[in-house]
Amino acid sequence: MVDSGEIRVEAGPGTTVVRLVGEIDVALREQASLSMATALTGVDPIVVDSTDARFVDSSGIAFVMQMKRAADEAGLDLSLRDPHRVLRDVLEIIGASGLLRDADEEPAPVG
Fold first, then answer.
1. How does pLDDT run across 2-26, given as a tens digit for each residue?
2. Are 27 and 2 in contact (CB under 8 A)?
3. Which segment of the chain is annotated as a signal peptide (predicted)?
4. Could you report the per-residue pLDDT of 25-66, keeping only the tens digit for each?
């Protein structure tokens, strides 16, 4: 049996969570596009949660970076919950770690 991944969008009170589960790779391209569109339709802050991700390839990193850019353009706050550093370590390697704040940190004041 081949491990697969999933991207879920869960709208909660005051936050939209984009949950990365299992292996996040190019096989999820269509699911990533649909998830991004769904997450960006709301007005609540977005948390990308990779707690249950075991692996994230370059297309998964690209998905997160595209989510960040699109959220910025829509005026939505986006943060990252990554307790196992599945994404954060790669973001540090490519010099992009400062672009996403940790979900447990307070957002920077606007203005």
1. 468 999 999 989 999 999 999 999 9
2. no
3. none
4. 999 999 999 999 999 999 999 999 999 999 999 999 999 999
The CA distances from residue 34 to 6, 72, 74, in Å, are 12, 18, 17
Residue type, 19: R
The rounded distance, in Å, linking the Cα atoms of 9 and 15 is 11
Q: How far apart are CA 54 and CA 69, in angstroms?
A: 24
Task: Give the residue carrying structure tokens 């869960």.
Answer: 10
Q: For the residues of 60-72, what is the DSSP string, one character each? A: HHHHHHHHHHHHH
Residue position matching structure tokens 């990533």 = 32
